[in-house]
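Sequence in, structure out.
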Amino acid sequence: MTAYDELIAFTRETEALAQVQGRLGWDQETVMPRGAATQRGDEMAALEGVLHARRTDPRVADWLAAASDGGDPVRAAMLRHITRSHARNTKVPASLASELARVTSVAQGVWAGARAADDTAAFLPVLSQVVALRQQEAACLAGEGTLYDALMDDYEPEASASKTAAMFDRMRPRLVALRDAVLGAPTPPALTGSFAAEGQMALARLLATTFGYDFTRGRLDLAVHPFSSGSGADVRITTRVAADDPFNCLYSTIHEVGHACYEQNIDPDFALTPLGQGVSMGVHESQSRIYENQLGRSRAFSGWLFGQMQAQFGGLSVGDADALYAAINRVTPGYIRTESDEVQYNLHIMMRFDLERALVGGDLAVADLEGAWNDRFAADFGVVVDRPSNGVLQDVHWSVGLFGYFPTYTLGNVYAGCLHQTLRGDLPDLDAQLAQGDLQAATGWLRDRVQRPGGLHSPADTVAAACGFAPSEGPLLDYLEAKFRALYRL
């Protein structure tokens, strides 16, 4: 075997073990007994120790030094990813990596309990541990850069807080102006009623299949916070159910299906290699957001969904497909990011971005986080947070240490705006297809243009290659203004 062959064989084994670790995380959020939390933390720490040892194995450096890409772009991409991973992991002590895995595993369970009890004080001690550990990790990685940039690089290579903040500053005025105009117009009626959990889940499974999710390589379960887990031949999704709000279940499912289809549709030759997963969380979010919003919340698709909901639940409080479309896209003040309308969603992200940068940078103490959240929310949204589960405890991300992850949601929206603009140009009869519940052409376009290459290209190059132009926020903002000004007759 050549040095390259030995390196890839070793890397495949490492990636297989990482998939096992991911499966433990899925189990913890879905079916693990509550009393197992401490033991699961020890298990995650032990497995992280094994993974860290493999990722920093001295032989990896030797193989990298001896390996050649031979002019092959796939080999070059493999070596680029492995080099980056090895360089980052060797900067982090094994003891720190294991302790992070243990504490975040435990913290996730503490967060779930605190959220259910609306007890922020019960969560803050373990959150303080998570923040401190991630600050230590960032200090190992940052070099001459900032702690936050070091963490953000885990999720969106080539991004930075300064570039992201500048983009947010360009976006905010148009988003706020659009929101103010929409909120000043009459609000369409909401969908009301009680919707059985069994019916919601049946419709969720239908939607997952309609959007291309392969149930022979996946499953749909319930969790406190919807998520997607895995890659290749085992990609699992979760959703949640609220009796008075079927959109929560249905659109969470479509969102997670976007993530899952990305992983399921990557070139199978890349399985269990660094190329066999989404290239960044921003690109990942572009898939979940375009599935959920530009396709799933479109007027055309709403017409098909109206018929499916009637078949599942009987008569609806909204009288026709146009009324359902308006209900699906209602813009109202609300607390929850995952339930936010498209107009305000990115404002939720901008708030979290600022708060977590302050936490990581040491400018905001964990003890002051809830107050800072509530003050900022009132300033940004004009609403007073009524309880922690509607405020600082609503998201799972900080409990598991995902600092630097939140801005990738808006970056994903920006990418989705660019992809949607090009998709519409390439598929002029898209609305006719969506009206029939036919997603094959749209999801096939995304599969071929974005998903199949996996990690072969950089995030920005992946989107630029699909769109034919460098990504920017303009197409997203234009789409939002056109959609909501028409819907609200502004």
